[in-house]
């Protein structure tokens, strides 16, 4: 079980109301106005939960009397103060700050763990960015939301403009609330699809969010996290692209032992119990790490990386590989892939298979598991550079 001390933050209150659910409460008095240390803590907390096998779902709510007043204007003014007389230098400074800010809030969408937002009372500006990045939104009857940014002279830049059109069914409504910064209440939020349920008060809303998260946590983590990944990946894609990618994804995920557990429990009329899903955390902040080696006739892989002191075994021996012109093959494994490189890997697999150049694929590419490709020795460097260039270019 996770040590609760590992989730100790200055501006967040964290708890485990049930063993599989992490409850994060915004807690910067009096109004949860976000300055840089606050939003960095939120991003760090969610990123930590992303690789914690004890966490299967997350609930986000507020300790204070409102959900959030949005951005701390005073702190933001200090960031906007000129740090250089050179306009280009100032622009680069601001761009870096905005990208860091976006990355922290996007942790809510990026994490494979489903996040349920329990919104209450005033939820302004950044609060809508945060809620939009969550998977499920519930609210209390006193909820009042507002995309406030135009009132302070800027376009919303932390996610509302990108995510709201996918969340609600009316592009016209999104533009109306974003152009005018007019508030909208719980009934309107429910009508437009911004929230899925409304509750009488904050306590009831938070309780319902925890109950929902508990139900999610009882399901197969392979299935739940895969479902979130596929839903997120499919945004902006055609149905055909989504189906093709899902086929590649499930070619690996259908081999999960959770399917057998679920079927057995159903036949026995019992409740299925699913084990924790151990995930690899990309070292050095998610950077790709390569494990490379030659695949010999015995079926073992002798790593060429000096840090790897043992051999790996794979399911397919060398004499079963689709190769008539080589006695060994080359393996490259990538850990810490992000969404962009996962998509590239799926496409790369298909292309190489069509060209009969892939000799063995150990796993379906995903951000949760390594991609390993065994190829002819002459192909490995090109594959490695293609994936790494795409990864570095998407960061």
UniProtKB/TrEMBL annotation:
Pfam families: ECH_1. One of its GO terms (molecular function) is delta(3,5)-delta(2,4)-dienoyl-CoA isomerase activity. Gene3D superfamilies: 2-enoyl-CoA Hydratase, Chain A, domain 1, Lyase 2-enoyl-coa Hydratase, Chain A, domain 2. The keyword Lipid metabolism applies. Keywords: Fatty acid metabolism, Isomerase, Lipid metabolism. SUPFAM superfamilies: ClpP/crotonase (SSF52096). InterPro entries: ClpP/crotonase-like_dom_sf, Ech1-like, Enoyl-CoA_hydra/iso, Enoyl-CoA_hydra_C. It comes from the Eukaryota. GO terms for biological process: fatty acid beta-oxidation. Pathway: Lipid metabolism; fatty acid beta-oxidation. One of its GO terms (cellular component) is mitochondrion. Belongs to the enoyl-CoA hydratase/isomerase family. This is Enoyl-CoA hydratase.
């Amino acid at each position: 079980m996770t040590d609760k001390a590992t989730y100790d933050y200055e501006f967040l209150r964290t708890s485990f109301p049930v063993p599989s659910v992490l409850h994060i409460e915004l807690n910067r008095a009096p109004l949860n106005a976000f300055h840089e240390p606050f939003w960095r803590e939120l991003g760090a907390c969610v990123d930590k939960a992303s690789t914690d096998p004890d966490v299967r779902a997350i609930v986000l709510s507020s300790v204070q009397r409102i959900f959030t007043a949005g951005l701390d204007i005073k702190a933001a003014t200090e960031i906007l103060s000129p740090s250089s007389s050179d306009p280009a230098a100032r622009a680069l400074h601001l761009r870096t700050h905005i990208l860091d800010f976006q990355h922290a809030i996007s942790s809510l969408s990026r994490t494979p763990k489903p996040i349920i937002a329990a919104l209450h009372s005033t939820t302004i500006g950044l609060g809508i960015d945060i809620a939009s990045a969550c998977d499920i939104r519930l609210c209390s009857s006193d909820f009042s939301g507002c995309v406030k940014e135009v009132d302070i002279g800027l376009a919303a830049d932390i996610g509302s403009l990108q995510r709201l059109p996918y969340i609600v069914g009316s592009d016209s409504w999104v533009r109306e609330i974003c152009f005018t910064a007019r508030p909208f209440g719980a009934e309107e939020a429910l009508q437009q699809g911004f929230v899925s349920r409304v509750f009488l008060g904050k306590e009831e809303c938070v309780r319902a969010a925890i109950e929902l998260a508990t139900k999610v946590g009882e399901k197969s983590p392979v299935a739940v996290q895969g479902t979130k990944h596929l839903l997120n990946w499919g945004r902006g894609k055609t149905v055909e692209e989504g189906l093709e990618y899902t086929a590649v994804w499930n070619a690996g995920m259908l081999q999960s032992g959770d399917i057998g557990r679920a079927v057995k429990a159903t036949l026995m009329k019992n409740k299925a119990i699913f084990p924790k899903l151990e995930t690899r955390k990309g070292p050095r902040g998610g950077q790709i790490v390569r494990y490379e080696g030659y695949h010999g006739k015995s079926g073992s892989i002798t790593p060429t990386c000096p840090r790897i002191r043992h051999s790996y075994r794979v399911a397919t021996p060398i004499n079963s590989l689709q190769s008539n012109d080589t006695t060994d093959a080359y393996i490259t494994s990538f850990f810490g892939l992000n969404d962009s490189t996962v998509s590239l890997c799926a496409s790369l697999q298909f292309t190489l298979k069509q060209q009969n150049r892939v000799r063995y694929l150990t796993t379906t590419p995903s951000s949760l598991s390594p991609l390993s490709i065994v190829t002819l020795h002459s192909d490995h460097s090109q594959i490695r550079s293609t994936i790494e260039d795409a990864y570095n270019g998407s960061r």
